[in-house]
Request: fold
Amino acid sequence: MAYVRVFLGIIGFGFCIAALMQFTTWIKGTAEPEVVTLRQLASDDRPNNIHLTVTDFVFQSEYIQGGITKNSISEAWIPMLVVEEDGSFTSPERPVIAHVDHIQDDAKYLDEVFLRTEVTGLVANRLDALDARERAHLRDVTDNANLTQAIVLNIDEKFPSLFAILGFVTLGSILIAICIWLSLKAANQPEEVTEIPSMKEFQATSRGNSHGID
Reply:
């Protein structure tokens, strides 16, 4: 029973942690993405909303893809360039890196992303996932840009719903409550007392057994 209580407590706590992580994302954005240009996203006056649809850009042809390290085998990190009025492409004020995940699940997914004229996703700093070699490679393809100031756009990452967050909290709370109830119930159960026979009873039993021997 103790293992069941621990298991329920861990699962319930995990649901609550997941809800907290999603809630911290939910309070930073809106369910409907805000539309901005790449230049606006890279400027000092960029929106506070992390759920964005970005326009007026092109993907740089040089990028890094999983395979440099085993940890990022299914990911791609693609610099984004601003489209100028004359049709030329320039680097934005701050580096903006498109992060495309799960590309192993669909061989054509990355090709389809490259054809888009606008992309929707969540803004976050995910460059911490890159190791030193990947960072060096990314600096090379961005002409030694300052990656500490980079803005990462996680393409097609879904904005969390409040309904799902409340569901995680409710389920986690129920499991933790059951865990606490089982713990209190186990603590209130009386301990089983093993009666030890007295010396007289033991001697009487011994004599009875000896008389019964042929």
